[in-house]
Amino acid sequence: MKTKPLILAAALALTIVALAATAQTSQAAPAETPKQHDARMEWWREAKFGMFIHWGVYSVPAGEWNGNTDHAEWIMESAKIPVSRYEQFAKEFNPVKFDAKAWVKTATDAGMKYIVITSKHHDGFGMWPSALTDWCIKSTPFQRDPLRELSDECRKAGIKFCLYHSIMDWHSSDWGTRRAWNDVAKGTPDMDRYTAYMKGQLKELVSNYHPGVLWFDGEWESPWTHERGVDLYTYLRAMDPKLIINNRVGKARAGMEGMDAGKERVGDYGTPEQQIPPSGFGPGVDWETCMTLNNHWGYNKHDDHWKSPETIIHNLCDIASKGGNYLLNVGPTSEGLIPQPSIDRLAEVGAWMKVNGEAIYDSGPTPFGAEAGAFSATEKDKEGKPKFKPVWDWRATTKPGKIYLEIFKWPTDGKFEIAGLQSKVKKAWLLAGHKKVKVEQTATGVSLTLPAEPTDKIASVVCLEIKDQTANVTAH
Ligand code: H79
Question: Hey, how many other C-beta atoms are within 10 angstroms of the C-beta on 14?
Fold first, then answer.
């Protein structure tokens, strides 16, 4: 009997050591085994493709101020609008055409599995009726709760509802780096008071809308510290153990590349912004590229620099082939409408996903190395140094026992060689129409004989069923 406490203590010590050793990106996380971590991340890893929504009172000026037409959600800062003037936008924010069901349908029709909408951007304006401030939807003529309506519709459609929440707050009197044009702020900024306010708001959001992800941003200014990030992460995970939280809750993000640098990390995944990393990051590193459909996040009525469906689909394949997620943005108007050019493009992506989504959802990265499939990897940067910004002929993704080839450039001779693939291929077919593809094992790999025409002008997908669970690929 006497030895029991000792055994227990030893077992406990071992567990703690094991937990400490497993923590990767979330070193300051509450204790979690690798199995628990995988379970928490499971839906997010399967989802692969989500919709970002930047919506707030900045949609009222719609990107234009004093003749400058290049603003968007940063307009308070980029046009130095006095906060008392900016506050008037709330009085004009009345998005009567907002239809949560229609927005969710746009997302699900595109094949998106989650939505991340701004509960609060850097202007501090809350898109839900908060008990902690009047600087929120309560002060608009729009006496509805968009987050309630959207979260309800997401639940009905079976996709995850998630929230973007800015740490930086240009409206609060307490945010540590107050702007000169904040003419409504009072007293001296107090980051402890600010953090308590933000935590209170996040408590409202988590308990009212049950977001799957909290997507923080605006963490880079000096008043926000690693310690505050760790404290916030811990607070939120204790409130909802299932929550997934991006790395911008802390200070480790290395610029727009979005991945963690240094040792003081917190959060569950990296967040490249407006870029796709040249290669993946190996097993156990989760990441998501967020990107605009045109050149702005918030609505800008002048911006018609829309990405083509081809670019979007190629990006989605490229990101999946490197093990990441794609979070693609829309910026709805102050009437409550997702711009039609966005809807049109997303519908085209959705048509592709309907046929080829199997190659994307729940897929793993290419077994051939991130560079395989590059047509041209020789682009030079401003200093004339070679820059790895390839033009892809094809990308690849995997699942247990399967390899998917997303072919962008159809071979004119009908021959597609996969160098280095040693796994025996049982059969191969095009996802479109389940059309059989002839396979030959060669001395150096595998050769496919494809039909004369691609099944899809943007990306045709071939599925290879292989004998191994994990593809056996050798250097070639
Ligand atoms: O919400 C959208 C944008 O409004 C927001 N992030 C996306 C998702 C955004 N905020 N800032 N930026 C985009 C660009 C800011 C870049 C910089 Fe920096 C801030 C340059 C220097 C400080 C990022 C953080 C790069 C280095 C530190």
Answer: 10
